[in-house]
Amino acid sequence: MNTNREIRINTNSGIRINTIFNNNTFDTVFNNNSTVGEIVAIMPKAAEIFKQYKIDFCCGGNRKLLEVIKEHNLDEEKILEKLNEIFEENSKVKTNGKNFLEMSQNELINYIESTHHVYLRRVLPELNELTTKIMRVHAFKHEELFRVHKLFSTLRADLEQHLMKEEEILFPLIREYEKEYEKNPNPQVFEKVKQVMKETEDEHEAAGDILKELRRITNDYNVPEDGCNTYAITFKTLEELETDLFQHIHLENNILFKNWRD
Ligand SMILES: [Fe+2]
Ligand SMILES: [Fe+2]
Questions:
Q1: CA of 137 to the centre of ligand 2 (A)
Q2: How many Å is the maximal CA-CA distance in the chain?
Q3: Does 95 map to a domain?
Q4: Are 134 and 234 in contact (CB under 8 A)?
């Protein structure tokens, strides 16, 4: 699909996007009601700006951008300007060459499993060793490392169950629905998917809360002066986990689950 987009800032009404799909011109307007999740779904790179300003775009993705800006007393003009710059830089709706909005549900699930789930299965055991190691060596001087270890252990246990639930229950149900029932809706299967999806979203929220707490108690993953190399690697890896998990939850909450909402 040939996609051309143009974005203009209008600080009264938010961000305006004119979009051309297959020569059919229509306007998509981001206005005062546009949510953070919608903006990232259309412009994935906006996530970088939101991270910079600590605007939650995964679990808090259904909140209106302008409300969040006001609530946290952020510079609206600057943020809209940065969104505009990103748009101009990266005018195609793609991240890593992927257009998530054009994927079928099955394709998106395959992508999530083969990238984000595989990443978590690799990094969680690694971080378990790392957080244990720095706790052993440094916690007598940096007591917050006990809490880092505990929070990470909870996150790890929760995520291991969560991945299993998605892979064994939720994703097979969505695939089945897309294949069998899209043309002939089945209310029972539909309700079942929505119920599991709701549990899944609650789990995302809990994981997001733990990540926020980890960031807070580590002072934005700031390594103290007496911190060793392992200390630095641990914090860097925790921060990478945060980035990956935010993108992962965003793809599920704001794109994959979107069609299932009322
Ligand atoms: Fe997932
Ligand atoms: Fe998930």
A1: 33
A2: 65
A3: no
A4: yes
Distance 238 CA to ligand 1 centre (A): 18
- Mark whether 195 and 139 lie in a shared domain: yes
Evaluate whether residue 94 is within a structural domain. Answer: no
Q: 200: CA distance to ligand 1 center in Å?
A: 9
Domain interval for residue 155: 103-260
Provide the whole-model pTM: 0.71
Number of structural domains found in the chain: 2
- Distance between Cα 253 and ligand 2 center (Å): 8
If asked whether residues 112 and 184 sit together in one domain, one would say yes
Distance, CA 203 to ligand 2 centroid (Å)? 7
- Over the stretch 64-122, which tens digit does the pLDDT of each residue have? 888 999 999 999 888 888 887 776 665 444 455 678 888 889 999 999 999 999 999 99
Q: How far is the CA of 64 from the centre of ligand 2 (A)?
A: 22
Angle at 169 between CA 261 and CA 42, to 5 degrees: 40
